[in-house]
Design goal:
single chain, alpha/beta, FAD/NAD(P)-binding domain, Cholesterol Oxidase, domain 2, 7-stranded mixed beta sheet, 23 strands, 25% helix, 22% strand, globular
Length: 534
């Protein structure tokens, strides 16, 4: 078994791992290795914004995860896409760039995560952004390009008017000072192409001689000797290899991958490790617990005619015209993403932040599943609760690294979550019934007006909903001893081991999560550099 030594070893080339690779290698002195299970981001659909619809279940670009069936969601095994490619899930996601509500991060700080309040994190949001629109509190010179929609469909203007008609504001910048209300999405895009974290952070750093990327490599375990992490074991091309770390190892494998790898390494709940015959290095009950995710229920509406919908534009022969538009003008439906606009709203009195987010665009899908458009004109609205109370788990079910863990999000297992999703569905209906949309929105197709009682709406959500691809919080940081990580993202009980990805969140933010992951990783790079300087 061969051995190589680096100052820093980073597991995962997703959003967080790419940030760490760039920042930790920037001084030209510290040697950095990044290990990625997938390969380079060569697939063309990665770089076409609308290509997300074709790669969410791609057998080579994703892990192919599915959840454990749960009675609360119709005993279905749900698809749970996670990227397995340079850029990780930032290469397959819907391109949405959304900051959390300031209170999200202040709540983190109140839970003992010192240095993680909104005022602490805002500089890191600004550091990673390159937002041409500028504005208060926005970054304009960071590595990650952020742009408004390349094409704003006319229907979205009518949605904005309808939002005002039901008493909600319209915001020019969804990441500006006011979050509640209607706004169009911002995308991780430059011109006509997606810019994943790999393209924003990793590729520009590849010429540095002190940065090494090892892809198509499966990490088998973290190596711990005398209470300190000393490296990792990997398998690549059938050969096992050890990578040593002089200073430390950072797990950036995501909210599923990081707790899974810790458990494989003997770090996790003792009963879980014992069930798989793994000798415990550290009994850490919080590893793999506290899984949080947003659960989406999608409504479909019929439009009065095709001028409001893109359903015909994304099938042949009209799709050929759109391909040419994308190639020569950087516009058209190939620049679209699943969320073209968003409505944040409070559905109860006394809330400090929106409790419901509604996303959508002028496309509707057969059977409500992204992929094949309906032949008639339509659009889709996805409704989800911003701060779910349901908690799930990621649990080792085999001692083999190549075997997926058991993923149990436990969606809608709290009464408060059930009530919130029903309120969200009713809000979506009220919005679509507003006067500005008369003569444009013909009628509701799915679930349909006959599904009207709270019980029927909840049954619909349970039977048809799924993940919004925001798993987080499975190796949380906190000030309490039960939190696996301290506020500097260091694993309690083992020196030299950090986790840096969405799993470190104490609670899920009120939004899509990728922008928060980038900011967490930017701050983590500073923390690591500070510790290295002593």
């Amino acid at each position: 078994m061969t051995t190589d030594t680096f100052d820093h070893v980073i597991v995962g080339a997703g959003s967080a791992g790419c940030v760490l690779a760039n920042r930790l290698s920037a001084d030209g002195r510290a040697t950095v290795a990044v290990i990625e299970a997938g390969g380079r981001d060569r697939h063309p659909y990665i770089h076409i914004p609308a290509g997300y619809a074709r790669i969410l279940d791609h057998p080579r670009l994703t892990w192919g995860f599915r959840t454990q069936p749960d009675a609360a969601t119709g005993n279905r095994a749900l698809d749970y896409p996670r990227g397995r490619v340079w850029g990780g899930s930032s290469s397959i996601n819907g391109l949405g760039h959304v900051r959390g509500h300031p209170s999200d991060y202040d709540l983190w700080a109140q839970k003992g995560c010192t240095g993680w309040g909104w005022d602490d994190l805002l500089p890191y949001f600004m550091r990673h952004e390159s937002f041409a629109g500028g504005g208060e509190g926005r970054g304009t010179a960071g590595p990650q390009p952020i742009e408004h929609l390349a094409e704003t469909p006319a229907l979205l203007d009518e949605f904005a008017r309808a939002a005002e008609a039901i008493g909600l504001p319209v915001n020019a910048d969804m990441n500006g000072p006011r979050r509640e209300g209607f706004s169009t999405f911002q995308q991780t895009r430059r011109g006509q192409r997606r810019v994943s974290a790999a393209r924003a952070y990793l590729v520009p750093a590849l010429s540095r001689p002190n940065l090494t990327v090892i892809d198509e490599a499966l990490v088998l375990r973290v190596i711990v000797e005398e209470g300190r992490v000393t490296g990792i074991a990997i398998r690549r091309g059938g050969q096992e290899r050890v990578l040593r770390a002089r200073f430390g190892v950072a797990l950036a494998a995501g909210a599923i991958g990081s707790p899974h790898l810790l458990q494989l390494s003997g770090i996790g709940p003792g009963e879980v490790l014992a069930a798989q015959g793994i000798a415990p290095l550290l009994d850490a009950p919080g590893v793999g617990r506290n899984l949080q995710d947003h659960y989406i229920a999608r409504l479909t509406f019929r439009l009065a005619d095709h001028r409001w919908s893109a359903n015909r534009r994304i099938v042949w022969p009209r799709l050929a015209v759109e391909v040419l538009r994308w190639a020569f003008t950087g516009k058209g439906v190939l620049t679209w993403s699943p969320g073209m606009m968003s409505l944040f709203a409070r559905t109860e009195e006394g809330l400090e932040a929106p409790d419901v987010q509604i996303n959508g665009g002028p496309l509707s899908w057969q059977d409500g599943r992204i992929g094949v458009p309906e032949t008639e004109p339509g659009f889709t609205l996805g409704v989800w609760q911003c701060r779910p109370q349901s908690r799930g788990t990621v649990t080792l079910r085999s001692p083999r690294a190549e075997d997926a863990p058991a993923i149990a999000p436990r969606f809608l297992t709290e009464r408060a979550d059930e009530a919130c999703v029903v309120r969200g569905l009713r809000l979506a209906r009220r919005w679509m019934a507003a006067e500005p949309l008369r003569g444009i929105v013909a009628h509701e197709v799915r679930p349909g007006p006959d599904v009207d009682s709270d019980a029927a709406l909840l049954d619909f959500a349970k039977a048809t909903g799924g993940t919004v691809y925001h798993p987080s919080c499975t190796v949380r940081m906190g000030g309490d001893a039960a939190a696996p990580l301290d506020a500097r993202l260091r694993l309690r009980g083992i020196d030299g081991l950090r986790v840096v990805d969405a799993s470190v969140f104490p609670d899920i933010p009120v939004c899509n999560i990728n922008a928060t992951v980038l900011s967490v990783a930017e701050k983590a790079a500073d923390l690591i550099a500070e510790d290295m300087r002593g």
